[in-house]
Amino acid sequence: MKPSDIDPALAICLQRFAQLDAQTPTPQLDCVQRRRLLSELQARLLRRQGLAGIAVQNHFVSAPGREITVRSYMPSHHASGQTLVWLHGGGWMVGSLDTHDDLCEHLAHYSGHTVLSVHYRRTPENPFPAAVDDAQAVLHWLHQMQGVLPFASSKVLLGGDSAGGHLALATAVRAVLQQHTAHAQIQALLLLYPCLLPDLATPSVQAFAQGYGLTDAAMHRYWQALGGADDALRAPSLCTAALPCLPPTAIMTASHDILRDEAENFAHQLQALPQGPQCVLQRADGMVHGFARMLVASPAARQHVEGACRMLEQLRTS
After folding, report:
1. I need a labelling partner for 9 at 20 to 30 A (CA). Which of 87, 143, 179, 211 fits?
2. How far apart are CA 126 and CA 227, in angstroms?
């Protein structure tokens, strides 16, 4: 495959990102600070006027030694009554509520669910599993806030894109292993092009290592900065003890993405389990890693995100 095979709108978006990178000299910043700055500048390039019929509000979750900011997106029409907790991507290091604002609005619009975006603690300042601890704290908070907040419930959906997909899966694996009854229970997972394995040894890594946005070198650095012990949560797709007990799972990959094969292999692994969870898999053709954050630029990307919401609905109603 060639860069010409990807959606032209995404190709233009990647070019704009590259120009922004080249035009932002920051010799005084370290790697982490520069990546975070560029992440927020990219978000400005992709910012659009908010969707009609979606009420947006920030909330603050109290947890031991910290406060977690979450942002709710509540649809006023055709609301499902369900809550989708979303963990943003960004290599565990970058990404924020703002970089994923447009995606979360569209998820709420297409699904009818209230989407709750979580600004978890990021690496390298907060080694793994700090982000999973934050996701777990939000699930506990949702259980506690039943009757206080309209979207708080004892049963929720959980999802994430890229590194957020990894965190969503790790949170679900921990829920299986620890059986916390005081937390909101995870009814289904939605994983968009999740990063799952640190070895980066699949054919898609070789095929799309350069020229498609996320590079193999960048992904290696993200895994190195993640920190934490090499345990079941760090590589949750390898936790065979928990996989049969996972909730129904929907996985969407991008055709031109170094992480494509590891996510699709994981989906096939779940589908092959004799008593495993229901798992649906869909590949988004012509898409690159991170396409779900480029919805303003690409109508095709919007169609795929809408398709991901249909996949999640398929799990809920089957």
Report:
1. 87
2. 8
